[in-house]
Inverse folding.
């Protein structure tokens, strides 16, 4: 299925989604609004003509010239049809928030936690949204363009990651 046909299928299946194509280095993707994200992802997963049964990754990009917008990109794979698709959503960098896709794909759990940790995008309805790469006391989200790269982080007590990997979590 060509990208134009996929965009048309999404537009028919999810009224009000107004999907658009966008160009990437390795092809084209679908740009959708944050309000219809879960319905679009559900359609792409469940419809027999698309069958994107695997969420490969969720990532984000904070372009310096994007005027306060963070792009969140979902990389999907259909084993049945042997193809990939990318779904992009733009969120406001001041209050970045999206609904979680963890109810659709279990792999979204860790990927969304990584996007939260690095970019500060809050995934509403996520079952366990906490840091995954950095320690809990870390301040800020280091892959944001607004993050001060010379920022000093609070000093914390040295921990034994084997004996007590999650301090304070009984």
């Amino acid at each position: 299925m060509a990208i134009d046909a996929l965009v048309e299928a999404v537009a028919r299946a999810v009224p009000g989604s107004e999907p658009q194509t966008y160009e990437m280095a390795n092809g084209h993707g679908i740009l959708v609004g944050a309000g219809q994200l879960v319905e679009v992802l559900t359609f792409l997963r469940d419809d027999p003509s698309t069958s994107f049964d695997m969420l490969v990754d969720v990532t984000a990009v904070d372009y310096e010239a994007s005027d306060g917008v963070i792009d969140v990109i979902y990389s999907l794979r259909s084993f049945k049809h042997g193809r990939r698709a990318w779904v992009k959503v733009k969120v406001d960098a001041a209050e970045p928030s999206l609904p979680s896709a963890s109810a659709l794909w279990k792999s979204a759990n860790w990927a969304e936690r990584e996007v939260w940790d690095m970019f500060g995008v809050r995934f509403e309805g996520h079952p366990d949204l906490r840091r995954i790469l950095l320690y809990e006391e870390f301040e800020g989200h280091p892959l944001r363009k607004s993050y001060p790269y010379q920022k000093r982080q609070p000093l914390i007590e040295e921990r034994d990651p084997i004996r007590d990997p999650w301090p304070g979590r009984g």
